[in-house]
Amino acid sequence: MAALxxxxxxxxxxxxxxxxxxxxxxxxxxxxxxxxxxxxGYVGLKRDDVEVHLAKVDGKFARTVGEQTxxxxxxxxxxxxxxxxxxxxxxxxxxxxxxxxPWGTREFGVLDPTGVCLTFYSDK
Length: 124
Known about the structure:
The chain has helices at residues 16-26, 61-66, 78-86; strands spanning 10-13, 30-34, 42-47, 50-56, 70-74, 99-100, 105-111, 117-123. It is an alpha/beta fold and 124 residues long.
């Protein structure tokens, strides 16, 4: 029987410079690969066992797609990660402070430079 083993989100990018800086310097991801050294259109990032791929989307369409994209990450110690990310300005979503949710998780949200909402959570 077939089994799904892993998912890798491919997220839209409006400005590669700002987005790569955000993921690497503020979220702690490392660059795994890129399609082009001079003007990347596709970049793979990794932190621990999590991979995220970034894909260039042209024009205003990037922001439209980004603001409708959400990704949820399961975290071993969400309180510690919140503290790590809180050290940087403009990382934590204004409406996404660390909180216990009625559906049984403890979570917080982050907005990337294209408007993608990233939620980091663990079970209570």
